[in-house]
Design brief:
4-stranded mixed sheet; 14 strands; globular; 14 helices; alpha/beta; 5-stranded antiparallel sheet; Transcription Regulator spoIIAA; single chain; 3 domains
Length: about 425
């Protein structure tokens, strides 16, 4: 590999240290990248030490863009050392999310396949890896949040479009995606980043008269604008912005020397200096507000993960309980499956739901209460019996669920 020469001065063999703020969010990342820019590109350092020792909070919109930037510098020959936080809890979170593993896999452990409340950082370089990450992200969302109608479809569509842009337009070897659910705030957090050529340079390959990067970023979110017509119609970013406006979501697109933000339904664009390598998209999507997806997407009503995985016919959904968990013995598992059931019913309000117990020999009383007892109280006897049907349920499970429903009715929903 040929190392890129940045510096005006001779390169130093001593690591240049950059200190991470107590709270690593987008603003702290912006300061951090400027410090790295000075050390690497102005002073020619080939070794950087990123010191997290005083850091107490790490947010996806700070760490994911940092990882994309670090990977860019690493491919150009810069050695990067990570000094972990002092906080034991924060180190556990870092390990769980797989953040430092992406920077230095020889020192830091691989994350779990998916987490309780999040999709740990996923790195993708092709459609197969991206599709796998998106499917896992949807499962995380369906199990951790109760979503209003069409929110899961909007979430899925946006992930596919933003992730697909990395593969088709960024000219980047790697893309990075992180999804976190926040049940208390009824929000989904999405961050997608790459260190490719960026939106402005990509658009100038087709529109050479674009005045500057700020104009390029603003142009990119207009309907029908694309640098590669053979790959799509240019509605991905425009549709994502339309969804953000309709749902009152936060949306930001930062690339090169431009940053576009949608907040409280208002779109603003400004210059962003020094230019950002690649592209970072952040979305904070409310999940308790119904979305008219065809209206946001100019009449288009895309097929969804729920339809493809759970739909038997136009009036029936089927959930195979055995595919949801290894065991059914606690309330935590029960809450996630109840969220999943509620989301399936919210997404298809006119469909019946068949819950298939094949391969499930027994469920714990606490599980039965958390799922079926609470659902019965919430839906009411008529709503529960008219919409939910059980298949392949043995006598033991039936007795436990009947008892749980009876006791829950006596106690009430929130007891």
């Amino acid at each position: 590999m040929v190392k890129k020469s940045y510096g005006r001065r001779p390169a130093s063999s001593t690591p240049n240290e950059v200190l991470v703020a107590q709270r690593l969010n987008w603003e702290a990342f912006d300061n951090l990248r400027k410090a790295m820019y000075i050390r690497i590109e102005k002073f020619g350092s080939e070794r950087i030490s990123i010191d997290f020792q005083r850091t107490e909070t790490i947010l996806p919109n700070g760490i994911v863009p940092l990882i994309a930037l670090v990977k860019k510098y690493q491919t150009e020959g810069v050695a990067v050392e990570v000094i972990p936080p002092r906080s034991v809890d924060l180190n556990n979170l870092v390990k769980f999310e797989g953040w430092f593993y992406s920077i230095d896999p020889s020192r830091f452990g691989r994350p779990e396949a998916h987490g309780y409340n999040s999709l740990p950082l996923r790195v993708f370089s092709n459609d197969t890896e991206l599709n796998s990450a998106i499917n896992d992200a949807i499962e995380v969302a369906l199990r951790n949040l109760t979503m209003a109608k069409s929110v899961s479809g909007a979430f899925e569509w946006t992930l596919n479009e933003i992730g697909g842009n990395v593969l088709h337009h960024a000219q980047s070897e790697l893309g990075f995606i992180q999804v976190n659910s926040f049940p208390r705030n009824s929000k989904l957090s999405i961050v997608v980043a790459d260190s490719g050529i960026g939106v402005p340079k990509s658009l100038r390959e087709r529109f050479s008269d674009i005045a500057n990067d700020r104009v390029a970023v603003e142009t990119a979110v207009q309907k029908g604008v694309t640098s590669k017509p053979n790959f799509g119609q240019g509605n991905g970013l425009a549709g994502s912005v339309a969804i953000a406006v309709q749902s009152n979501a936060f949306f930001s697109l930062t690339s090169g020397g431009g940053r576009l933000v949608v907040e409280n339904g208002v779109l603003t664009v400004r210059d962003f200096m020094p230019p950002l390598y690649g592209t970072v998209v952040e979305i904070q999507l409310p999940t308790d507000r119904e979305i008219d997806l065809p209206a946001a997407l100019w009449g288009h009503n895309p097929s969804t993960y729920i339809e493809e995985r759970f739909e038997v016919d136009t009036s029936t959904l089927e959930l195979k309980l055995r595919s949801c968990a290894q065991t059914f013995g606690n309330r935590i598992t029960g809450q996630k499956i109840r969220n999943l059931i509620q989301n399936l019913m919210n997404e298809s309000p006119s469909s019946d739901l068949v819950i298939d117990f094949e391969g499930v020999n027994i469920v714990a009383s606490s599980f039965a209460d958390e799922v079926f007892g609470k659902l019965f109280v919430e839906l009411g006897p008529l709503g529960f019996t008219s919409r939910i049907r059980f298949h392949n349920m043995n006598g033991t499970c039936r007795q436990l669920i009947d008892t749980a429903i009876t006791e829950r009715v006596l106690q009430g929903r929130d007891a």
